[in-house]
Structure formats: C-alpha cells, structure tokens
Amino acid sequence: MFEDSEEEGEGWEECEEDQEDTQVTCLFCSHNFSSAEDTFTHCRIEHNLDLIQWSRQHQVDCIQYIKIINFIRLKVGLLLYEVMEK
Length: 86
What we know:
Largest sheet: 2 strands, antiparallel
Distance between the termini: 48 Å
Helix content: 55-70%
Number of helices: 4
Order of helices and strands: HEEHHH
Number of strands: 2
Number of domains: 1
C-alpha cells in the first residue's frame, strides 16, 4: 500500500496518538474502558468470555477476529432492540 516505509510509520504514529483518547465499550453491556485490555478483562470476569483465549484456541486470524467482534456487536444490539420494543 505504501511505497516508502517511512510513510507507513508516520501513519501508525497517527493511529497510536488517537488511541490515547479512545473509549472501548464492552461487547455485552454499556461499560466503557480506556483500553481493549481492560475491556477483555471485564468480559472475562463479568461475562465469562475470554476472547483472547478463545481466539488462540481456535487459531483465529485478524480478519476472523474482527468478524467475530462485529457479529457479537450486531447480535447484542439486535437483542437489546428487541427487549426495548417489548
């Protein structure tokens, strides 16, 4: 994608700077955290789901991992919508 590795490095620096202000929302509830690590710890303790261990156990690659996260968000969102409609 980038022809010069220096350009690629600059792009990553921008992403890293943006992460400082990022809030990560739990996949299953409305709790927000300052890092993905804190979110994964919360999910493991409060929701009995260790996504890191599960992805290692099933040898999930990056794209599959993103798809799983998106799938969980979609299904939880639909479930919450259905509950609120009743």
